[in-house]
Amino acid sequence: MFEKKKIESEMASLTNSISLPKLTKTVNYDNWSLKMKVLLGSQENWEVVEDGFDEPSNTTGWSNAQLKVLKDARVKDKTALYILYQVVDESGFEKIASAKSSKEAWDILEKAYKGDDRVKQVRLQTLRGELESMRMKETERVAEYITRVETVANHLARNGETLPASRVVEKILSH
User: How far apart are CA 147 and CA 144, in angstroms?
Assistant: First the structure.
C-alpha cells in the first residue's frame, strides 16, 4: 500500500509541475521520444525503461538490501509506465494498456510509431532524397533554410545515419 501511495505522490508532483509531451498520430515520434528520454531521465526512470524490469518469480532468501533494491526498481518501473500512460492519446493507450513493464510499453510505442527495419530504411531513403533536393526558397530567410537543413540532418541522425558537420555546412552553402 505504501508503494502505491509513493507512486501516486510522485505522479501528482510530476504532473502538476511540468507539461508532459503528448504522443498523438500527428506528433513527430522522434521528437517526442527525445523529450520523453530527457523527462524520464530527469525523474531517474529512463534506465528502467531502457534496460527493463523483470519481476522475479521467487525472492526467498533475499536480504533486506536486495528486497529494497527490488522494491525501488519496481517503483521506478511503475512510475515510468504511469507516465507513459499519461502521455499517449486513447489510441496509444490501447496499444500499451496490457504492457507489464515500462520497457514493454516503450517498445510497443516505438514499433507502432517508428516502424520496423524496412520502414526505417524507407524513411532514411526519403530523408536522403529530401536533403539532396532541398533548395532555398526565394522568399525564405537564410536562418529558415538552415533550420530546414538541420531538421532533416537531425532526423537522419535519429534514424541511425549521422551526417558529418562538413556535409551539413556544404549543403547550406551550396544553395
Answer: 5
The whole-angstrom separation of Cα 65 and Cα 55 is 16
Alpha-carbon distance 93 to 73, whole Å?
A: 23
The reported pTM is 0.65
What are the residues facing 23 on neighbouring strands? Answer: 88
Which helix (H) or strand (E) segment holds residue 45: the answer is none
| 21-39: b (≥16 Cβ within 10 Å) or e | eebeeebebbebbeebeeb
For 21-52, write each residue's pLDDT tens digit.
988 877 778 889 999 999 999 989 999 999 99
Task: Give 146-174 pLDDT, tens digit per residue.
Answer: 999 999 999 888 878 888 889 888 888 88
Please list, in sequence order, all residues whose beta carbon lies within 8 angstroms of the beta carbon of residue 106, skipping any fewer than 6 positions away: 49, 84
C-alpha cell at 46: 529512463
Rounded CA gap, 117 and 121, in Å? 6
Torsions phi, psi of 27, nearest 5? -90, 140
d(CA 172, CA 152): 12
